[in-house]
Amino acid sequence: MTFAAPASAPTSATAAAPVSATPGVWPRLDRVLMSAGAWMLGLLWIAPLLYAAWTAFHPSAYETRFDLLAPLSLENFPLAWKQAPFARYFLNTVILVTSILSVQLVVGTLAAFAFARLRFAGRGILFGLVLVQMMVMPDILLVENYRTMRMLGLVDTIAAIGLPYMASGFGIFLLRQTFMTIPRELDEAARIEGVSLLGLIWRVYVPLAKPTYLAFGLVSVSAHWNDFIWPLIVTNSVSSRPLTVGLSIFASPDSGVQWSVINAATLMTSAPLLIGFLLFQRQFVQSFMRAGIK
Amino acid sequence: MKQATPPSLSVQPVAVAPGVVLHDLCKDYGTQRAIETLGCEIRGGEFTVLLGPSGCGKSTLLRMIAGFETPTGGRITLDGRDITALPSSQRNIAMVFQNYALFPHLDVADNITFGLNVRRTPKAEQAQRLDGVARMMGLAALLARKPAQLSGGQQQRVALARAVISGRPVLLMDEPLSNLDAKLRAEMRVEIRALQRRLGLTLIYVTHDQVEAMTMADRIILLNAGQIEQSGTPEEIYSRPATPFAARFIGSPPMNLVDAADLRIAAPPGTIAGLRPEEIEIADDGDGLPVRLTGHEYLGADILVSVMAGTAATARLILRRPARLGLPEGPELHIRWAPAALHLFDPKSGRALTAAPAATAPGHRAAG
Ligand SMILES: Nc1ncnc2c1ncn2[C@@H]1O[C@H](COP(=O)(O)OP(=O)(O)OP(=O)(O)O)[C@@H](O)[C@H]1O
Ligand SMILES: [Mg+2]
User: Could you tell me the domains of chain B?
Assistant: First the structure.
């Protein structure tokens, strides 16, 4: 369809026309191209999901055959659920994600407040280090992190998966930026009434940074729900494996499981995030706008 | 609603509000000096206005009293107790901020009782005090709203309510009316003044608006470039300004300040002579200082007449006279003034010369 555009396009027609005629045409063409591009990207993004949904809801005979009239079926889901300990994986992932997020929020809030509003020696250098953390690809640290977990005797535990991420440089940075926009007068108005430092954070800073917390929470939860490489390396038993790793083992080619069942499992494991996002889409988008993450 | 009985005041008038004394206070920001070493007494139960142009250090001074800035030198005492090193929450003062500093996430009631909450006042007492203050400030119908749903004037009232519910005897305000429109400002001036009287508060009020200072203050402390230019009652500062700065800053239009020689006053060279516009009158009998009419401005009740005086006609004077008298016939006029109306400022020190020199100038009206 992109090839059809130049042929019917008004470009050749307007080339000879006076310049004043062009402004009306160019923006329109521009918009057409933009929305075509957006649609393509969107389709490209959703295609695997659509394929997964298609196969998951149809008998395995239709895995590679597209037929609108194919009979719908739900039997792939119980099949998948039975063939691997997904309940345990779910539990592991939920424990993992909530523990990471809650520690991140506590640590991030306290650190961000200190960087935003307290004066102490070495503040600039320390904040620089926090920023550096954001620039380092986590994958570079895989080996080093593994060694640390070995030293701590935590290999093959949920704690080992979460520990490296609990002090999030991104979270600290984001919250600090938000805290710095809170008017000093509010801070002073609370202080003159006699709030303690922790009371000040809890009563003034945290409530005013709610959109940032929401946005950061979404980023953190989806990142760690989907994280794969690190948990794959550091876990090797059912009791600590998160969903992603469990799913990949379940779906490995030599396991001989049918695609329709694998895709049912895939849908199941990503469903909570998808549903959550769809439900809270409005709030999330608003939070991102307000938190300044685009 | 019953309006017959006045609302019971749960905020009791303070018996004797404490005064604040500044001893040799100064403040540097880095190498820049914001407050020169100064001392003054702010009396208990009085309405004291810190007045001065932008950047003169009013807020800095107030924030040092509040405990938000640490003085570079000197001490602050409240009721004789040294509070220089105390955190602001222990100073027994309340404050109203310029932008009100209401907590956007709390409704009006929670905003007002924020401090009581922090200090764990029993809920029943909180409710009772909130009720009293809300009725006193006319906020009873707004208690469930968020600050964003209030008008500027209402927000101002909530900020005031939050400050007075604490029952603290000293109240600080930093330009609390600057965000309101002119009409509301005039209303709030009266209201704040009445509140201060009723509760007997020691109120320290920062403004750059001389009208606010004149209408509200028991005492004005006039600041300029980090120094106290003059302090006294509004009448004192208006009628006996200590410096040309004080003379120009208070009064609208400001006092005319010209070289004494231009008014034909015998004084050391460089002496500055000052005359308030309303103290100058036009001498219809042709007696007095000759001047040239250059313009006028009609204000309704009054008319401002601009004239030029002096040998080279370079000294501009503005005089105020009732509009019903009309514009004098120009362009050549004569003006005069009462000897007591003339202010002279020393050329070297810039301070007011206490005794006016003998009445030798032609402009002086024959007294008695
Ligand atoms: N935090 C600060 N750091 C450095 N300099 C400051 C700081 N706060 C104030 N100053 C300086 O101190 C001087 C006095 O400031 P201050 O805010 O007290 O003035 P002000 O009289 O309140 O003025 P305005 O009427 O504009 O509010 C100014 O020159 C200002 O630039
Ligand atoms: Mg100020």
Answer: 20-239 (3.40.50.300), 253-345 (2.40.50.140)
Is the ipTM value over 0.85, yes or no?
Answer: no
Lowest mean pLDDT across A9-18, A53-62, B84-93, B157-166:
A9-18
Alpha-carbon gap: A179 to the closest alpha carbon of chain B (Å): 14
In the reported structure, the alpha carbon of residue B29 is separated from the centroid of ligand 1 by a whole-number distance in angstroms of: 9
Ligand nearest to the CA of B35: 1
Structural domains of chain A, with CATH? 6-56 (no CATH), 81-291 (1.10.3720.10)
Task: Looking at the CA of residue B226, tell me the nearest atom of ligand 1.
Answer: 14
Lowest mean pLDDT among A101-105, A146-150, B267-271: B267-271
Q: Using the beta-carbon criterion (under 8 Å), do A194 and B105 form an inter-chain contact?
A: no
**A188: which chain B residues are within 8 Å (Cβ-Cβ)?**
66, 68, 88, 95, 97, 101
pTM: 0.80
Question: What residue's CA is closest to ligand 1, atom 3?
Answer: B29
Chain A residue with the nearest C-alpha to that of B92: A192
Does B4 score more than 70 pLDDT? no
Residue A294 pLDDT > 60: no
Top mutation candidate among B25, B59, B205, B227 for ligand 1, by most atoms within 8 Å of CB? B59
Do the Cβ atoms of A192 and B119 come within 8 Å? Answer: no
Neighbours of ion ligand 2 (CB under 5 A): B 59
**Residue A249 corresponds to which tokens in the numbers above?**
């083992």
Range B257-264 average pLDDT: 90
Q: Any chain A CB within 8 A of the CB of B88?
A: yes
The pLDDT tens digits of the residues spanning A184-239 come to 999 999 999 999 999 999 999 999 999 899 989 989 999 999 999 999 999 989 99
Bigger pLDDT: B210 vs B13: B210
CB-based contact (8 Å) between B234 and chain A? no
